[in-house]
Amino acid sequence: MTATLIDGKAFAATVRGKVAEHVARLKNDHGITPGLAVVLVGEDPASQVYVRSKGKMTVEVGMHSYEYKLDAATEEADLLALIDKLNNDPEVHGILVQLPLPKHLDEDLVINSIDPAKDVDGFHISNVGLLGTGQKSMVPCTPLGCLMMLRDHHGSLSGMDAVVIGRSNIVGKPMAQLLLGDSCTVTIAHSRTKDLPDVVKRADIVVAAVGRPEMVPGDWIKPGATVIDVGINRIDAPEKGEGKTRLVGDCHFDSCAEVAGAITPVPGGVGPMTIACLLANTVTACCRANG
Ligand code: GUN
């Protein structure tokens, strides 16, 4: 391996430390404790793991954590009523509804019913519009974490060629907006992109967010490029024993690390930064709510 490892786990611990200091000041100087409400509908195992981890870290940095676990068959009206209650609760500064939602619930309707000022995911249509027009908004946590690591590694990103693979509303599109905001030349590639290997090969920065295990091989990467791997995919690992699995990213780590200048590992790269940014967004929401 020749690439520098971008240690998201260590970086996230530093960010959480700063969040904890901020929370302590809000408590001591202003008597305010930021609060984050997380709503989980149904029993999706991956979502349960994420929600548990978010709750634990929220408490660790000194904030209040409110968890709402609703039955998979919850009616839309009941979920909207809960969101309305949280919107009007002054102790709740951030609201996150874990996605994906069960099929019978209208995800757009649910997300857009969250008060944009409490939308710590940055998914509400007003926050999407504010980000797209370069105005102050809530910024989606995963792309924000990626941007922080890129800025930390490179300093200025101005003029760099960036390729984002994946066009989701959660990662791909907001990531492209953020890179554009930092004056990168941005390409969004996706499943219909022609000559994807050639498109990726032009990039100084590759952000892979497609959800396909080890899809990007090292020979797609320009020598010295920075690779940010957003994917978290569980695959079979018979080499570890029968029935065993392991986590891999959207990039083939070993071959990409031979060519890249810097790369994030999976696990321990983007994942921890996402939660750290969620906590930071909650503090931001709390500060804005209290002037
Ligand atoms: N599901 C996967 N990633 C996310 C995220 O960042 N926020 C929410 N609310 N749900 C998710």
Automatic annotation (TrEMBL):
Record pathway: One-carbon metabolism; tetrahydrofolate interconversion
Cited Pfam families: THF_DHG_CYH, THF_DHG_CYH_C
Leader peptide range in chain numbering: none
Reaction catalysed by this enzyme: (6R)-5,10-methenyltetrahydrofolate + H2O = (6R)-10-formyltetrahydrofolate + H(+); (6R)-5,10-methylene-5,6,7,8-tetrahydrofolate + NADP(+) = (6R)-5,10-methenyltetrahydrofolate + NADPH
A biological process term (GO) from this entry: methionine biosynthetic process
Transmembrane segments: none
UniProt GO cellular component terms: cytosol
Enzyme Commission (EC) number: 1.5.1.5, 3.5.4.9
Record-linked Gene3D superfamilies: Leucine Dehydrogenase, chain A, domain 1, NAD(P)-binding Rossmann-like Domain
Keywords: Amino-acid biosynthesis, Histidine biosynthesis, Hydrolase, Methionine biosynthesis, Multifunctional enzyme, NADP, One-carbon metabolism, Oxidoreductase, Purine biosynthesis
Ranges of residues in domain Tetrahydrofolate dehydrogenase/cyclohydrolase catalytic: 6-121
Family annotation (PROSITE patterns): THF_DHG_CYH_1, THF_DHG_CYH_2
Listed GO MF terms: methenyltetrahydrofolate cyclohydrolase activity; methylenetetrahydrofolate dehydrogenase (NADP+) activity
Stretches assigned to the Tetrahydrofolate dehydrogenase/cyclohydrolase NAD(P)-binding domain: 140-288
Positions contributing to NADP(+) binding: G166, R167, S168, I232
Described function: Catalyzes the oxidation of 5,10-methylenetetrahydrofolate to 5,10-methenyltetrahydrofolate and then the hydrolysis of 5,10-methenyltetrahydrofolate to 10-formyltetrahydrofolate.
Quaternary state and interactors: Homodimer.
Family named by the database record: Belongs to the tetrahydrofolate dehydrogenase/cyclohydrolase family.
NCBIfam families: PRK10792.1, PRK14186.1, PRK14188.1
Record-linked PANTHER family: C-1-TETRAHYDROFOLATE SYNTHASE, CYTOPLASMIC, C-1-TETRAHYDROFOLATE SYNTHASE, CYTOPLASMIC-RELATED
Stated name of the protein: Bifunctional protein FolD
Organism of this sequence: Sagittula stellata (strain ATCC 700073 / DSM 11524 / E-37)
